[in-house]
Amino acid sequence: MISLPPAAILILGAGLLPFLPRRTRSAALLVFPALAFGWLLYLEPGASLTIPFLDYELVLTQVDRLSLVFGYVFTIMAFLGGVYGFHVKDTAEQAAALLYAGSSLGVVFAGDMFSLLFFWEIMAASSVYLIWARRTPASGRAGMRYIVVHLFGGSLLVAGIVWRLVETGSIAFEFLEGGAAAYLIMVGFALNAAVPPLHAWLTDSYPEGTVTGSVYLSAFTTKTAVYVLARGFAGWEILMWAGAVMAVYGVVFAFLENDIRRILAYHIVSQVGYMVSGVGLGVMVGVNGATAHAFAHILYKGLLFMGAGTVLYATGRSKLTELGGLARAMPLALLFYMIGAFSISGVPLFSGFVSKGMVVHAAALGHQGIVFLLMNVASVGTFLSVGLKLPYFTWFGPDRSLKPAPVPWGMYLGMALTSGICIAIGVYPALLYNALPYLPVDYHPYTVRHLLESIQLLTCTGLGFWLVLKKLGAEATITLDIDWFYRRPARLANSIFVIWLSRLFGGVEGLAYRLVGASVRLGANPIGYLFEVTRFARYPFARKISPQPPSFDPDWYRFPVGVMVIIVLSCFAVIIAWNLFA
Amino acid sequence: MRLLRLMSLAVALALALGLQFLLPLEEAHDDFWWNHIDGFFALFGLIICLAMMGFAKLIGHYWLQREEDYYD
Lengths: 582, 72
Hints:
A: mainly alpha, 2 domains
């Protein structure tokens, strides 16, 4: 039996969706991911599918343990996102979500650079619709910036791939040794992994997506990037440092943010930092750790976005300065959110503890003390913002007597299922460890030392938060980030190249018309015109000798559009006739 | 409520620090100097937490935080 690409199932689903009866479309969003998951269970490592294309062999399916584990979690998350978004009626948004999940699977199972690029670009194009589907002016602009940045990243990738093809003649997607082409490809990948300074597209756009769309967004783009980095660049030291810096960068900016989904978006940057660093550490435990953390992260970050999305759905608000006191009205959302928050913070018995620990362990094994400490700094910041500050000012804090609207049951069910998996992985890590690419997994999360370190770190972070709680109130501001460089000068560029330029053209055009008008009237009646423009125009006799010529109308001197159309059509007819009879 | 919170925090702290001496600690996998300092991660957590909040607020107020309509 041929190894049908798992992506095909979801992409086919996206194509079929508009033709299904309206009532079954939400269910289809569960069925297709479930089918794809089943198909992945059937696929064995080593299975592949190649098709000839021009002079090359495209490898549409190439299965190994690394791609399988990413495939599992992508299909699981697509399913959970479907449960959470069961109430959504926007078919285009649903189809975009399926296409997005499908193209991510396509990237994960692509065995050559061309197929990878193909799915990579579909991913960018389909995901932007999840932002635009919110249909606010802000989401429109954010989506436009998102797609422009991704097209830029895509072109870096194309440049790298073509360069490498010319140099080595190979389009195979495998470990890359180095050289300019490899660096270009890496930068293209790093942009999708949101490695600063190429990260601002993420924190700019994810908070503007729809309530359900952002749940999907948080899962796929950055994690496919982690996957491709793990396959192509494992052990590149630059990634180890980039990841460690990224982990801290994200938490510092998150602390300044006011929008709850933007706080979570900065924590994607931070968490993906652990993964990128794990990939850079490169030893088997590093790649295993990065993979495990990606798996756990997709689920708990989806859960956090679900929780924050539920608040946004029910209250229409997403800013800490406008939220508060929701604990009584939305206790379930708080419960599920906190399960996600404990997971991301690495609280024992939750999923982040067993996955993050593995990456930190890899840093320790590699004797990278600074990386190890930076990761722990990021852990402190994560618990501070996501585990303490955000929930405190959303569900507790100043009571703004909000009246949240009822929330669809699907959203709660989606959160409950995701919470269940987060706890299951935390309590029984073998579930996750047995799926990792390199077996056996030589890491034991539940040792006294690991437990003690985590508990001390988290408790004292809590103490620090409690000590300065009174001064912590969120501020109604936005935080400048790298996107300043293309957002702020955009206004200047717009005024120079669009506004001023069009004013200049308008001015010249107006001047030319007036000049032509004056010369027409001067030509028609020179004496009358001279009288008219001089002070003699006041006298009655002057009016008698200077009947006013009609004022200038440029249309009088132009061919009607129809003439042009007739000319074009007749030329066309002549050419056709010539071809028929000659 | 405030007292309750304070007390639970104190208990958690006492536990976090006390466990260090109660439980048998395995050999560390690594040779970092901080493995030999009891309660290192407690101190680390507290200091980093306060320092990070201070640092973030500092760069926020003097540099990065702007009015919400800054880009409009």
